[in-house]
Amino acid sequence: MTEGYSRVARSLRGRWVENLYFGVVAVATPDGRVIAHLGDTSHGVFLRSAAKPIQLLPLLLAGGEERFGLSGAEIALMCSSHAGTDEHVHAVQALLDRLELSERSLTCGSHPPLDRRAAAALRDRAESPGVLHNNCSANHVGQLLTCRILELPTEGYHKPEHPLQDTVLDLMAQCTGLAPDAIQTGVDGCGLPSFRLATDRAALLYACLADPEAGALAPDLVQHIRVIMEAMAAHPEKVAGPGRFTTSLIRATGGRVIGKEGAEGFYGVAVRGPVALGVAIKIIDGSEECRDGVVIEVLRQAGCLSRAEFEQLSPFYRKELRNHSGEVIGDLAPDLELVEGGVPHTIESIPAGSVV
User: What's the CA gap between 268 and 286, in Å, rounded?
Assistant: First the structure.
């Protein structure tokens, strides 16, 4: 079952290994060179919510930023897997109001807020979560805004046969250098198409987001990718939420590194400088308990984090395991070594022994 994958993390109970975690990693440049990897990077991975920056592009390309007066915070929110806090919910409602539509127009379904305090507050009020609490709700509003500006039907906007989804697929193809019919799709948890790419192509996609000009894309596409990346960099709290890794990663690096989680253990990273890189990481069994630490370790080994940035992110790097009495009985930590192909160490090197 682990053929083609490599160990990326382990958990200890006392001094002894209890669990091993396997995955695949690719680090790519905007011209498509894989400069570091783990495992077989031809392995197909579903991007899940890590595709949201691409899903927003049709709205901006159609002039939606100007037409609807979208702020950077709203653009970041429409790329988010938000936490369902009151702030997030109110912001999504404001976007809906701009369309004069109700939440019944959204097809993403509902689930409890990802933010524990927000979920607890709902329970305390004996309220059920609504569609606006769904972490994909703002992305779905973006889909409706796009339909409005392109004069497309809003009915069935989430279906793969809808014209909007053809446009999204075409843009995904442009950013990965593939033909649209070469991109496999499934259905995401929120109902939108979910794209399946080889891991190295997923890394290329995020390298393209990091430096779209180097990817030989059309000038208008380059311009709007930069708008999206700047919005996410400037508003990390909208991209995920309080206490969550993605928000902390963007904030700790001052927006130089933009991360985006996908469900089932996928994570994409756009490193915007000093050397532009894209990173794709998949924990192969879909577990996410070790994912954040693995992301940090890959970025450390690729020379993409300064010591100060690493220290800010250290609470996500190694997790203490405790028993029901609160005693520390082990830990969960990344355990990997990238296979390098000329990784440009762009930031002050952090020796491995200094972070364990």
Answer: 15
Q: What is the dihedral of CA 84, 252, 26, 277, to 10 degrees?
A: 120
Q: Is residue 278 a contact partner of residue 317, using CB atoms and an 8 Å limit?
A: no
CA distance linking residue 111 with residue 82, whole number of Å: 12
**Two tokens at 179?**
């033909």
Q: Is the pLDDT of residue 352 over 70?
A: no
The amino acid at residue 326 is G
Contact 141, 96 (CB under 8 A): yes
Which residue ranges make up each domain of the chain? 6-354
Q: CA Rg, the chain, in Å?
A: 20
The burial of 299, by beta-carbon neighbours within 10 Å (0-12 exposed, 13-18 middle, 19 or more buried), is given as buried
Contact 130, 102 (CB under 8 A): no
Q: What are the two backbone dihedrals, phi and then psi, of residue 290, each rounded to the nearest 5 degrees?
A: -100, -5
Residue 13 scores a pLDDT above 90: yes
User: Would the pTM of this model clear 0.85, i.e. be above it?
Assistant: yes
Per residue in 34-71, pLDDT (tens digit) is 999 999 999 999 999 999 999 999 999 999 999 999 99
* pLDDT, mean over the chain: 93
The DSSP bridge partners found for residue 22 are 7
Please report which confidence band the pLDDT of residue 2 belongs to, taking 50, 70 and 90 as the band edges: low
